[in-house]
Amino acid sequence: MSDPHVAHVAERVHAIVEDVFGALEEIRVGMEECYRSSPSFTSADLAGVRPQIFGCLRRLRGVAAGTGVIVAPGVLADRPRWLDWWQAPPEDDPVFLDVDLDPDSLDFYDYTAAEWFAAPQRTRCRHVVGPYVDYGGTDTYVLTFTAPAQVDGRFLGVVGADVRAARFEALLLGVLAACPTQVTLVNAEGRVVAANSPRLPAGALLPEYEAQARAVAARLPDPPWRIVSSSRERAVKLA
Amino acid sequence: MHQLPGAAVFAPVDDGSGRVEVVVRRLAEAIALGLVADGDQLPAELELAASLNVSTVTLRAALAALRERGLVETRRGRGGGTFVRGPADPSTARLRTRLRELSTSELREIGDYRAAIAGTAARLAALRASADQVARLHHVVDRLEAAGTVGERRRADGRFHIEVAAAAQSVRLTRAEIDIQSEVGELLWLPYGEAVDPGEVVRSHRQVIEAITARQADRARTLTEEHLDRGTERLMEFHWRLVTQGRREWR
Question: How many domains does chain A contain in total?
Answer without folding.
Answer: 2
